[in-house]
Amino acid sequence: VEGFLMFETVFCATSATIVSGAMAERTKFSMYIVYSFFISLIIYPVEGHWTWGGGWLCNDAAESFMMTTFGHVFHDFAGSAIVHSVGGVLALIGAIALGPRRGKYDANGKSRAIPGHSLIMAALGVFILCQHNLSCFLISTAKLRKNEHTNCKKCHFYFVLSVICRIFAPK
Description:
This protein has 6 helices and no strands. Helix 1 (2-22) packs across helix 2 and helix 5 packs antiparallel against helix 6. It is mainly alpha-helical and 171 residues long. 67% of the residues lie in helices and 0% in strands. It has helices spanning 2-22, 29-52, 65-69, 80-98, 119-144, 149-168.
């Protein structure tokens, strides 16, 4: 149960970070907390229930909407559709509501570079995202293959090792 809760919590947080990426540098941190709370408390759990919790998208009863309309139910491998649909749709709504980044374009409409704030934090974010995606897909694949964790652990180890070697490889 605790593992499943952690698994779902990471998915929920990922949905909120997709939105934060689209609205970066245009909202205050307090608003990030507000919309992350809203996404985490209301939107993501409802959509997650539709797919994984016995909701209308995964209801395989003969008279259900999905079976009568399409003949089969919706299956979401590793949560990709749920996470990215929640994050993507809300990111699009937020980006449209906020408009373009101020200072990103000059008077002629030409793009200006906006320098990053911290290269170390950006690199850490990439590493965490890489670990999350790899772990997420490996766990989901292991569920499909009757919990063959040994191969997943080896694959994870070799992937991380190859990323580290590439970082420190001479140019």
